[in-house]
Amino acid sequence: MPNIAVVTDSTAYLSKETLDKYGITVVPLSVVFGEEAYEEEVDITTDEFYKKMSESEELPTTSQPVMGTFLETFEKLGENHDAIISIHLSSGISGTYSTAVTVGETVEEVDVHCFDSEVSCAPQGYYVIEAAKMAQDGHSVDDIMTRLSEMRESMRAYFVVDNLNHLHRGGRLNGAQAIVGSLLKIKPVLHFENKLIVPFEKVRTAKKAVNRVYELLDEDAAKGEPIRATVIHAQRPEKAEEIRNHLDQKYDNLEIDISYFGPVIGTHLGEGSIGIGWYKQKD
Ligand code: MYR
């Protein structure tokens, strides 16, 4: 039975309980306030981060893990594993994946297989959990990588931000440059296309935007297949709970989680953002 280690980065925002249960290793990204860098959820909690951001005159920035962190992680895991699967946030919004690939190629002790989730947050976490479960069950690297690609076919993530300035300022909003002025006054539904964040549809109010995401979920959920969904929020637990209750009452083929936008992603989306992600589970 192969002994495969699963690595991800902190933007999957997996709970300690999940990390311990599946033996997942996390490489943290950081938020930077002025001269001070904080590894997210190591040096700064999500609550502390949003408080600090709201009080800070200068908005924070983010940084990906340095090569040395990946090297140390891969080499250590290589001591007692046959292979490593390293799953990261979309390569279109961060250099994390490509750093993992570069470092993975230099490590001699162990084969490193990197997977670009083409998304982030809890949807990325779903890939990580699936890979870790399969590794525990003794599946091969090939089987796991094939399943991750299959999951990507049905993975969806839509999100709505309270204020587009964060995304715009951080340079992570694509396909909207020409209309950004007018976009800043409305609430577009955003999603990933070819690894980049682009407006999916322009909607005038946050309520209409969330309703539009319900319609999109409806198209998939109506097929009756088992779906795992997550409501992701940036300091809006009540709203997330309301959406979860709504979805829970409407469908019986949906397993719904609540998750959050932690410091690094919160830097780029801002407080108040809400997202819904889902994928088709194995029958
Ligand atoms: C870095 O500095 O390398 C990190 C950059 C992170 C950019 C995050 C942009 C927003 C991502 C939204 C994800 C929503 C998933 C449902």
Short synopsis of the structure:
The protein is of the alpha/beta class and 283 residues long. It has two domains: 4-29 and 64-153, Rossmann fold (3-Layer(aba) Sandwich); 155-280, Hypothetical Protein Tm841, Chain: A,domain 3.
Ligand inventory reads: myristic acid
Going by CATH, the architecture of the largest domain would be 2-Layer Sandwich
Task: Sketch the major β-sheet.
Answer: 6 strands, mixed
The assigned structural class equals: alpha/beta
H and E string: EHEEEHEHEHEHHEHHEEHEHEHE
The CATH class of the largest domain is identified as Alpha Beta
Detail the poorly predicted runs.
Answer: none
Q: If strands are numbered along the chain, what order do they take across the biggest sheet? A: 10-9-8-13-11-12
Gyration radius (Cα, Å) is 19 Å
Distance between the termini: 25 Å
Pfam families: DegV (PF02645)
Protein name: DegV family protein
Keywords: Lipid-binding
InterPro entries: DegV, DegV_C, DegV_domain_contain
Protein architecture, described:
The chain is α/β, with parallel strands linked by helices. It has two domains: 4-29 and 64-153, Rossmann fold (3-Layer(aba) Sandwich), CATH 3.40.50; 155-280, Hypothetical Protein Tm841, Chain: A,domain 3. Helix content is 41%, strand content 24%. The protein contains eleven helices and 13 strands. The chain has helices at residues 16-22, 46-55, 67-78, 96-106, 121-136, 141-154, 165-169, 180-183, 206-221, 237-250, 263-269, and strands spanning 4-9, 25-27, 30-33, 36-39, 61-63, 83-88, 111-116, 156-160, 189-193, 196-201, 227-233, 254-260, 274-280. Strands 10-9-8-13-11-12 form a six-stranded mixed β-sheet, with helices on both faces. Helix 3 packs across helix 4 (96-106) and helix 5 runs antiparallel to helix 6. It starts with a strand and ends with a strand. Bound molecules: myristic acid. Myristic acid binds next to strand 5, helix 5, strand 8, helix 11 and strand 13. InterPro entries: DegV, DegV_C, DegV_domain_contain.
